[in-house]
Design goal:
It contains ten helices and 23 strands. With about 400 residues, it is α/β, with parallel strands linked by helices. The chain has two domains: about 170 residues, FAD/NAD(P)-binding domain, CATH 3.50.50.60; about 130 residues, FAD/NAD(P)-binding domain (3-Layer(bba) Sandwich), CATH 3.50.50. The strands form seven sheets. It has a five-stranded parallel sheet, with helices on one face. A five-stranded parallel sheet has the order 11-18-12-13-14. A three-stranded antiparallel sheet has the order 6-7-8, with no helix packed on it. Strand 7 and strand 8 form a beta hairpin. Helix 1 runs parallel beside helix 6.
């Protein structure tokens, strides 16, 4: 540990920041960390679903300030590829960045999956949905269908949109507007297990939201959402989640969809000094809390490689989701591949934010402000917290 290890993290999202924080907590005396991202700001995206309904808004914060608070340097640059033999990260400006260890967390690229439908992927689409709801309140839109496209493993945001839309329309006196959910899942939010599926099904029925399962949305045209294996659902407007594609970084092994395969510790196959975490990996579930867990596993492995007294543990996903309903939110917890799951109206973790990261959740609550990372419905009597960058302080905040 006489020589410090130069760790470069590519990305400016959840996995990148969690990785930087974990390395600071585990190996601050052994590593120097540099965060390289094209964005100037970190965007807290989970509250995007709440924007059209006035229950929260997307917040941004300068990446440089967050990186410095996490003990890292920040460089704004577009990464185009990696030369693993030379240990160099290539950028669009032709500047090469040397690394000893590399963590790739550039995220994924959202693309339209259901042609003709409103693809809900950013603030512009949030504004468009708000206009649709205004039209429905005026009586010019009679029906809205929410569609989960093929390959979308993280379906929770679309259930939120449907539930929040119903609440908004009831509040405006437009309860007669028909709302439907179409999904290829055999049960709603089936990733969380039977307990959650049953609870969400009951919630949808109580709110008068039609549910069409085992139906894959294909396209929307002439007032009909076409589905496979057959049939369709009539509606005036269709709203769909995007499909994600991998970053396809030059010089980095990736699958046919551009995603980076990794082992249980986040290490990229056949590369000694390269790790990956988050939506850019081939792990099928793309979700902030999962990205943070992947980053923790990768950071521990990198810290051990740098000589820190750390015993790396493999990535074993624990799924946590905060479902906004327009009334009392639902906290969901499950371990994929096991029957165990929990559904509660009380927080199952703290802070009760959308993104649950051992290091990132309390860090953002402290630096952005607790009120800026919690949806209105989950705030309750929440109070500000103070955070020290030590492993155990972060660990005990992650879950109660």
């Amino acid at each position: 540990m006489s020589e410090r290890t130069n760790v470069v993290i590519v990305g400016g999202g959840v996995a990148a920041l969690e990785g930087a924080l974990a390395l600071h907590a585990l190996a601050s005396e052994a590593v120097d960390v540099e965060l390289v991202a094209p964005e100037h700001d970190f965007t807290y995206r989970p509250l995007l679903v709440a924007e059209p309904f006035g229950h929260g808004s997307v917040r941004t914060f300068p990446l440089q300030r967050l990186a410095e608070a996490a003990g890292a340097r920040y460089r704004q640059a577009i990464v185009t590829g990696v030369e693993t033999e030379q240990r160099l990260v290539r950028t669009a400006s032709s500047d090469a960045i040397h690394y000893d260890e590399l963590l790739l967390a550039p995220g994924a690229v959202p693309v339209t999956a259901v042609p003709g439908a409103l693809c809900f992927r950013g603030p512009a689409e949030a504004g468009a949905l708000e206009r649709v709801l205004d039209e429905a309140a005026r009586g010019s839109v009679d029906s809205i269908v929410f569609a989960v496209p093929a390959g979308a493993a993280w379906t929770l945001p679309l259930y939120e949109l449907a539930l929040l839309a119903r609440a908004r329309l009831v509040d405006s006196g437009s309860s007669g507007v028909r709302i439907a959910m179409v999904t290829a899942e055999h049960a709603p939010l089936q990733l969380f297990g039977t307990t959650a599926s049953d609870a969400v099904a009951e919630l949808l029925e109580a709110r008068g939201i039609e549910l069409h399962t085992a139906a894959t949305p294909l396209s929307f045209a002439d007032g009909v959402l076409s589905t496979a294996p057959s049939g369709g659902v009539e509606a005036d407007v269709a709203v769909a989640l995007p499909r994600l594609e991998g970053p396809r970084l030059q010089g980095v092994h990736h699958d046919a969809h551009g995603f980076i395969p990794t082992d249980d510790y986040g290490q990229v196959a056949a590369e000694v000094d390269v790790w990956a975490a988050g939506d850019a990996t081939s792990f099928p579930l793309k979700q902030g809390g999962i990205a943070a867990q992947q980053a923790d596993a990768a950071a521990a492995s990198i810290a051990a490689r740098a000589g820190a007294p750390v015993d790396p543990e493999p990535f074993r996903p624990v799924l946590r989701g905060l479902l906004l309903t327009g009334m009392v939110p639902r906290f969901l917890r499950a371990e994929p591949g096991t029957p165990a799951s929990t559904v509660d109206t009380e927080p199952l973790w703290w802070p009760p934010a959308k993104i649950v990261g051992r290091h990132l959740a309390p860090f953002l609550a402290a630096h952005l402000g607790l009120s800026d990372v919690l949806p209105d419905a989950a705030r309750g009597d929440a109070i500000p917290i103070e955070v020290e960058l030590t492993p155990w302080r972060h660990g005990i905040w992650a879950e109660v």
